[in-house]
Known about the structure:
single chain; about 45% strand; disordered N terminus; about 10% helix
Amino acid sequence: MLKRLLIGLILHILFIHGIAHAQGVCPLDGTLSGKLICVIPQTFGAFGFGSGAGAPLLANQHQAHFEGEFLSNFDPINEAVGIQVSQLPIASPSAAITFTYDPALKTFAPSTEESLGPILGERANTIGRNKLYVAFSFQYFNFNSIDGRNTSNIPAVLKHQPFPALGPSFPGFLQACPNQTGMTGSYAGNPCFVHDFIQTTNNIDLTVHQYALYATYGITRHLDVSVAVPILNVSMNVNANATIVQNSFGPGGSAFHQFDPGIVKSCGSTKPCLNGTFSSSGSASGIGDVVLRGKYEVYQGERFGFAAGVDVRLPTGDEKNFLGSGAVGVRPFGVISYGARVSPHAEVGYEVNGKSILAGDFVGPTATNAKGGLPDRFVYIVGADAAIIKRLTGSFDIYGQRLFGVPQLFLSSFTDLGKCSDINCTTLTPGTTHPDVGVRPNADYNIISASVGLKYRAFSHLVLTGNVLLKLNDSGLRAKAIPLVGASYSF
């Protein structure tokens, strides 16, 4: 009965997921979206830094041209967040108490292993024919860095896009700047106002509460199957401070670019308004991506064992709310382990992922909503679990991933075109350097963490678990420490 309900739930979720109608996700055309993947793009309003009535920037004889830089800076940040928060680690569905066949009694009895096994890692043993393992775990993720940069202080400079001069029939400030010093390449012959730029400092506050249900059932002595069902609550808040750096002047010494105080309420009565604060937030709860597993014990020695298996991640979570990946993932893996008072184990696997909107084109008025390929991952877990005293096991693992073709942020700098003294830029003060963030669009990098925890056999077949996952390097979207608590029972 339980099996039928579970299958029915998965099919229902897949059906609903599959018939969702395609539509613009984050159009930035004046229409707001409540999806979490739109929180970052919509921080500056329903137009981002685009143009049009309702946009945060005033039009001064032309529409402000910062939208291209806005999309190129914030799209990769959004993509990196979406890809990684949708594929969070979960505890292993490997049973703490396994059963071995007793030929004399012709039945399965609890194994005599002293250790209760790993927490995030795997061991080769299967649970035993017709045996059932159920478990629950809770993990809390408070992300505070992305690619080594504190998420509370991410700088991004929005340069004015190149703007070819409109010619002598237009006002003088729309013609080529009289002082073309330093204006080369696509900026050659542009008006003076392209000297202006916007400096932003951004704070991304992202937390995830992950509840997971697990079940493992022994099909034969050497084959078991598992299911993991995560339930997530994701909360995201983004705050930004933006300053228009006025390096040019409009008619009468006015600011050519400024925020619209009718839209940007933080401007108050300040004129011109060159500084604005912006924010956006959202939260979502629901089922994540269900993971199905099959594991076969290829070799079982007196202490040494080897197993092979495969994980299949189903796109049951809503990827537009960071609850799932939006793509099928398949990860074949192999496990070796040695059973003793101190039991080493190792697991390696390679995950192949399909296409998802998270890696696609979904931001901006010209977005196609085309899906892109989620990065493949090489996953390895190496460690040992050890019986400390009777009923208590300690577990330590190095949990590593290598991601392929992922957008990666790095600290950069921007040198502006210089500050003009007047509307004709009679005198030009040399440009200065400002903090910025750059993006490597298709980087390969490692995410490495250490897992340290305890398992306690409270009574009979009930096992309680406590663990913490600690980051060891800076790549990716990271939390300093990820606590886990759980309980399991074997029947």
